[in-house]
């Protein structure tokens, strides 16, 4: 048996099967119909739609395309919204809350159909998701939410009592939970590579390692300066999310980059995986700062992720925190080695809802709040239709006012460690109450 160790690699597990490949340099066009800032899921999905409608399109990324969250995430197709239904209803009214919930269903269905019709080879499996409850009150509330989803939206969702929990997940930490069968998993780096493939084939020019340094109004269009030179664009779409920099200060004041870290175990014996994850579902928890985890697409490893309160470097403490969480869930993994540990930035905003909006002629598709596998392609596609003036096809519950700005914030999230520790304290209090 191996002694516990920190992970052997600090790069994403996903890069083993789908390594990032720098794109060859290409000439910079003088003029474009649409210039896209960011070549992750949202930027490529938007570019694909625009190019197929005959627009000249180029996407510019400061890093290798996909090097951000698009190839670092957990690959769970949850499309979750952080505020619950009751909170959404209080903030925006019942009609808006239901529209947001309904669009989640539509966005997942779009993603699954898109993968199928485009022939994207990305290990997608519609296996369902189990969400664990801490205490009877949580279980009851989650059961009511599942019932509402089933009745109002026709989603296959149901409660799982504690007595039946082991059929779904090999732990006794939870006190029951809920299942949604409209959620699955994919290989995020393969998905990005395939999305890149079809975008390039459709005529989207993608420039990696080419940061945009300024965007200025120039008559009816824009003058955009990049590290490779300047060009003119009739329209500009910004899809930078958790890697937003100072070139768009309006957006930077409204999005907070938050680290999300994932660990991957070494390969486990088939009988171990059968005990721990008998249905191969995606797993999440009903906590403010809980874990999300899943089997690897080949069913041989456990991948577990959560928020990382660090801000610089690659410290040991967040890795140990996730490892302790893994062992707490599955004590038999105490001496299992970790093969990979990595992190990436997600983008949060004050109301925790994804957005499409326009400001000074620039269209933004951003703010995916940790659920970009579903929301980024969906929001990017709708932003493309907005740019093309397709009113009906562009309509979305997420196309409304920009997120509120964050006072005293200019891009340095100095307050996030304290916020995350506060959320963890609230979780500890909630768990203490549930255990009484």
From TrEMBL:
UniProt keyword annotation of Oxidoreductase present: yes
One function term, GO molecular function aspect: oxidoreductase activity
Database matches in InterPro entries: FAD-dep_OxRdtase, FAD/NAD-bd_sf
Gene Ontology cellular-component annotations: cytoplasm
One Pfam family linked to the record: DAO
Keyword entries, A-Z: Oxidoreductase
Residue ranges occupied by any FAD dependent oxidoreductase domain in the UniProt entry: 33-385
SUPFAM superfamilies: FAD/NAD(P)-binding domain
PANTHER family assigned: FAD DEPENDENT OXIDOREDUCTASE DOMAIN-CONTAINING PROTEIN, SARCOSINE DEHYDROGENASE-RELATED
Protein name as annotated: FAD-binding oxidoreductase
């Amino acid at each position: 048996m191996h002694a516990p160790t920190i992970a052997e690699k600090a790069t994403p597990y996903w890069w083993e099967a789908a390594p990032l490949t720098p794109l060859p340099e290409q000439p910079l066009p003088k003029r474009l119909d649409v210039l896209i800032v960011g070549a992750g899921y949202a930027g490529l999905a938007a570019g694909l739609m625009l190019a197929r409608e005959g627009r000249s399109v180029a996407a510019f990324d400061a890093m290798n395309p996909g090097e951000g969250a698009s190839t670092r995430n957990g690959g769970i197709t949850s499309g979750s919204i952080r505020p619950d239904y009751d909170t959404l209803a209080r903030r925006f009214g019942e009609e808006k809350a239901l529209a947001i919930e309904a669009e989640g269903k539509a966005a997942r269905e779009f993603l699954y159909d898109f993968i199928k019709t485009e022939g994207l080879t990305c290990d997608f499996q519609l296996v369902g998701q189990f969400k664990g409850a801490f205490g009877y009150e949580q279980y009851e509330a989650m059961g009511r939410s599942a019932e509402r989803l089933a009745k109002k939206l026709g989603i296959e969702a149901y409660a799982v009592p504690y007595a039946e929990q082991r059929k779904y997940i090999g732990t006794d930490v939870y006190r029951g939970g809920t299942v949604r069968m409209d959620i699955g998993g994919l290989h995020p780096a393969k998905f990005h590579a395939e999305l890149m493939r079809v975008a390039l084939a459709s005529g989207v020019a993608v420039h990696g390692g080419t940061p945009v340094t300024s965007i200025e109004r120039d008559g009816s269009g824009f003058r955009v300066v990049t590290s490779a030179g300047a060009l003119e664009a009739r329209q500009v779409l910004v899809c930078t999310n958790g890697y937003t920099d100072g070139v768009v200060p309006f957006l930077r004041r409204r999005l907070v980059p938050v680290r999300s870290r994932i660990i991957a175990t070494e390969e486990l014996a088939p009988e171990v995986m059968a005990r721990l994850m008998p249905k191969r579902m995606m797993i999440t928890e009903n906590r403010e700062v809980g874990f999300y985890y899943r089997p690897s697409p080949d069913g041989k490893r456990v991948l577990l992720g959560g928020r990382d309160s660090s801000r610089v470097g690659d410290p040991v403490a967040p890795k140990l925190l996730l490892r302790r969480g893994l062992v707490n869930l599955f004590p038999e993994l105490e001496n299992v080695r970790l093969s990979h540990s990595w992190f990436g930035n997600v983008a949060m905003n004050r109301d925790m809802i994804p957005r499409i909006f326009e400001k000074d002629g620039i269209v933004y598709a951003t703010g995916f709040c940790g659920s970009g596998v579903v929301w980024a392609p969906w929001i990017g596609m709708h932003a493309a239709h907005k740019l093309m003036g397709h009113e009906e096809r562009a309509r979305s519950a997420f196309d409304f006012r920009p997120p509120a700005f964050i006072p005293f914030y200019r891009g340095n999230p100095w307050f996030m460690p304290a916020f995350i520790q506060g959320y963890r304290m609230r979780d500890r209090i909630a768990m203490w109450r549930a255990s009484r």
